[in-house]
Predict the structure.
Amino acid sequence: MEKITSFTINHLKLEPGVYVSRVDHYGDTAITTFDLRMTAPNREPVMNTAEVNMQKYGVRITGMTNASNSFVGKIGSGLGGSAIGWILAAGGYDAYAATGEATGKVIGAVNVLNVYIPIAIFVVMALILFRYDLEEKLPEIRRENDRRMADHPAEN
């Protein structure tokens, strides 16, 4: 079996940008899937915040940072799953409808779930990430933290 092109690339070396992930052919039409990288891979901001905390307060809280990130992810998954039901209910979805056909309101609700909400979330994420500058500051923060730890080893 032939590997998808995206699976043959060393993703650890990719920098932010737009990449072609794969091209599928359906009849005479080529369907291209893109990979939009907003940050460099495996340099997660959640880990960088532990370095900033060390710089500001002298304590590295990597475990607490990761636990908080995990907790917020679980809350988001729960609310996201619930929102699907709420939006479909607002659109009048009835799983047991006799005709089995979706009404215009239900189709609108499905469009909200699959088009408008993802676009809104993408725009908010893009705005946040374009303002995110910790990756540029991080090397100096780490050097400062290392100097602090070397100067006061008993405190760390």
About this structure: Strands lie at 17-26, 29-37. The chain is about 55% helix and 10% strand. The two ends are 52 Å apart (CA to CA). The longest strand covers residues 17-26.
